[in-house]
């Protein structure tokens, strides 16, 4: 949302993916980073490419584009697609699509074959994502900035998960959320119940459990 209305700058895909990976993990949903090259093509044949199949580092910046893959549901999530002007103008929020995963063991990091493509439509634009190789993934996770901010990504991810729980327990939503194939998510929803949540002095979201008036709890 902050990307869509211009409240944050572009080039935040790594931070967003690292944060969301932690948030998904708190809810029991496995998510993995996927570096990609993105080609956006309009109906008239014009277009722009973002990211790279061979991303590089410049100082503290990683020059590329990355998304998330959710292996258990075979979903593809581009949380920061609206950093690109032509996509932001359409105004349809993050991009989510179905993907075909690699035959490799998902534990080895090769969830999609290098060179594999995911083609999705957004308005009158065609988005073609091409998967980069394992070297590109290493350039993200081994980058000094990613390592240095790992604790911050975890903390923010826990807060995102906490706020997501608050949203998923709402009327007309909780019933569907409890049908999701994620035992940890269902357990957390039962645990927080209707407990109010608030930000503590550090700015972290916490639920105040009714049967434990002195103690508070977070997703983690």
CATH structural class of the largest domain: Mainly Beta
Number of domains: 2
Total helical elements: 7
The largest β sheet comes out as: 7 strands, antiparallel
Mean pLDDT: 86
Helix fraction, binned, reads: 25-40%
Determine Rg (CA atoms, Å): 19 Å
- Uncertain parts: none
CATH architecture call of the largest domain: Roll
Approximate shape: globular
Secondary structure class reads alpha+beta
First-to-last CA distance: 25 Å
Describe the structure.
The chain has 220 residues and is an alpha+beta fold. It has 2 domains: 13-148, PH-domain like; 150-207, no CATH class. The chain is 29% helix and 25% strand. It is built from 7 helices and 11 strands. The strands form 3 sheets. Strands 1, 2, 5, 6, 7, 8 and 9 form a 7-stranded antiparallel sheet that branches. Strands 3-4 form a two-stranded antiparallel sheet. Strands 10-11 form a two-stranded antiparallel ribbon. Strand 1 (32-41) and strand 2 form a beta hairpin. Helix 1 (13-26) crosses helix 5 (150-168). The longest helix is centred in the last third of the chain and has 19 residues, at 150-168. It is globular and about 60 Å long. The model has no long low-confidence stretch (mean pLDDT 86).
Outline of this structure?
It contains seven helices and eleven strands. It has 220 residues and is of the alpha+beta class. Strands 1, 2, 5, 6, 7, 8 and 9 form a seven-stranded antiparallel beta sheet that branches. The chain has a two-stranded antiparallel sheet with strand order 3-4. The protein has a two-stranded antiparallel sheet with strand order 10-11.
């Amino acid at each position: 949302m902050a990307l869509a209305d211009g409240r944050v700058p572009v080039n935040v895909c790594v931070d967003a993916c690292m944060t969301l990976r932690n948030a998904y993990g708190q809810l029991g949903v496995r998510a993995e980073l996927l570096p990609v090259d993105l080609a956006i093509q309009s109906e008239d044949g014009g277009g722009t490419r973002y990211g790279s199949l061979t991303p590089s580092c410049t100082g503290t910046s990683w020059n590329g584009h990355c998304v998330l893959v959710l292996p258990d549901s075979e979903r593809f999530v581009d949380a920061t697609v609206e950093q690109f002007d032509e996509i932001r103008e359409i105004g349809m929020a993050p991009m989510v699509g179905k993907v075909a995963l690699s035959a490799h063991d998902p534990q080895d990091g090769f969830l999609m074959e290098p060179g594999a493509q995911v083609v999705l439509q957004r308005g009158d634009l065609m988005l073609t994502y091409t998967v980069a190789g394992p070297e590109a993934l290493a350039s993200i996770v081994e980058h000094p900035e990613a390592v240095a901010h790992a604790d911050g990504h975890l903390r923010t991810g826990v807060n995102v998960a906490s706020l997501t729980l608050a949203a998923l327990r709402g009327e007309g939503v909780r019933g569907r959320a409890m049908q999701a194939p994620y035992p940890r998510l269902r357990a957390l929803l039962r645990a927080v119940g209707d407990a109010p949540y608030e930000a503590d002095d550090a700015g972290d979201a916490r639920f105040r459990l009714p049967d434990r008036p002195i103690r508070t709890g977070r997703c983690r």
